[in-house]
Design brief:
Blueprint (H helix, E strand, L loop, with lengths): L5 E6 L3 E7 L5 E8 L6 H15 L7 E5 L10 H15 L5 E4 L5 E2 L1 H6 L1 H4 L3 H10 L4 E7 L4 E7 L2 E2 L6 H6 L3 E2 L14 E4 L2 E4 L8 H7 L20 H10 L10 H27 L10 E4 L3 H11 L3 E3 H5 L14 H11 L6
Parallel strand pairs: 1-4, 4-5, 7-13, 13-14
Antiparallel strand pairs: 1-2, 2-3, 5-6, 7-8, 8-9, 8-10, 11-12
Length: 352
């Protein structure tokens, strides 16, 4: 069946993500661009223009949009954020070519999206989970991004989430505010073992999760698109120096092994927190004992570890949606909501 090509947009607070799907529903382009929206809308306009330039001929006449950037403190409210982001996108695209994902309301025109901002705000996770529900009997989406993690159950072609607002999702463990790039180290643990002692971490933004996973050699090279905490280089040694500073130490002549052990402890603490969230969601009725974890996001290497610990099958988002051989440095799983919103826009009758 021939489908209309669509460019999916995920307008985040730290990144703008785009994914183009062709007439066969294949992913033919994926891009994740730095977009520090909290610093001003000019960053969005720059990233949007860059995405359209990169897309070139792959940019079709239809555009499907989901967003989370309304949360940033540039805006006084989520409603204002939805309105200003939709308006900003329509500077680059004709309003008639734009359809906005409104969660349980389906796809909306830009004007309707502003009227129903509560349904539009931070609904990107629902797009991803809704697409997965069309492919698998049941499972749990675990999308580990740069900043947050979504833990979303689905079964019998339906998303089984308990929460639909950020507040309710935090309470239900369906959103965990931790990621593998931008999370401050002081939010990963309160203390770390150094030289046989427990050392409290400084409440300072000296290092981030990107430093942890870079020291461990696990961070995908393309995952970290923002400056480091000290604007320094993104090398293992520089990351170790930033971790050392969290304990009041200088790296000086230390070997990296001392700080690799600290990084391993921090990664383990984060993993334990995510495991607890997964266990809570998996304990609900309606999921089979073999329901897989579906990994998405730049941190899905963490999801593989979670699946092993929980004795669950692991399924990669890329294996379900496919893609062409040349989609860029990023891949479909890195930008899962952008892929999902484009695919759902091609077949809106599949929406829940």
């Amino acid at each position: 069946m021939r489908l209309d090509p669509v460019l999916g947009w995920d307008l985040g607070g730290a990144h703008l993500k785009g994914a183009a799907v062709d007439e066969q529903g294949r992913v033919v382009l994926v891009r994740q661009l730095s977009c520090p929206l909290w610093r001003g809308l000019e960053h969005f306009h720059g990233a949007a223009a860059q995405l359209l330039e990169m897309a070139g001929d792959a940019a079709p006449g239809r555009h499907a949009v989901t967003l989370t950037g309304e949360l940033v403190d540039l805006f006084e409210s989520r409603r204002e954020g939805v309105r200003r982001l939709v308006d900003a996108l329509c500077v680059h695209l004709p309003a008639g070519a734009v359809t906005v994902y409104g969660g349980r309301r389906g796809f909306l025109s830009p004007a309707e999206a502003v009227r129903h901002s509560g349904q539009v705000a931070s609904a990107n996770w629902l797009a991803t989970a809704s697409l997965l529900a069309l492919h698998l009997d049941d499972g749990v989406l675990v999308d580990v991004g740069s900043t947050t993690t979504d833990v979303i159950p689905f079964a019998q072609r339906r998303v089984r989430a308990n929460g639909f607002t950020d507040y309710d999702r935090l309470r239900s463990a369906e959103m965990v505010y931790t990621g593998v790039v931008r999370t401050p180290v002081m939010a990963m643990a309160r203390r770390v073992p150094v030289d046989g002692q427990w050392v409290p971490l400084m409440a300072e933004h000296f290092a981030t999760a990107a430093d942890v996973y870079r020291v461990l050699g696990r961070l995908p090279e393309h995952a970290d698109k923002h400056p480091s905490a000290d604007n320094g280089p993104k090398t293992r040694r520089a990351s170790a120096r930033r971790l050392a500073r969290m304990t009041g130490c200088d790296l000086e002549g230390d070997s990296l092994e001392r700080w690799r052990l600290v990084a391993a402890h921090l990664a383990e603490r984060q993993l334990q927190g995510l495991q607890a969230a997964c266990e809570r969601v998996l304990s609900r009725r309606g999921l089979s004992g073999r329901a897989p974890l579906v990994g998405a996001g730049v941190g899905r290497f963490v999801v593989r570890a979670l699946a092993t610990r929980l004795g669950r099958p692991y399924v990669d988002f890329c294996d379900l949606v496919g893609g062409s051989d040349e989609v860029g440095d990023d891949d479909p799983a890195d930008c899962a909501p952008a892929v999902a919103v484009a695919r759902l826009a091609q077949e809106p009758e599949a929406l829940p």
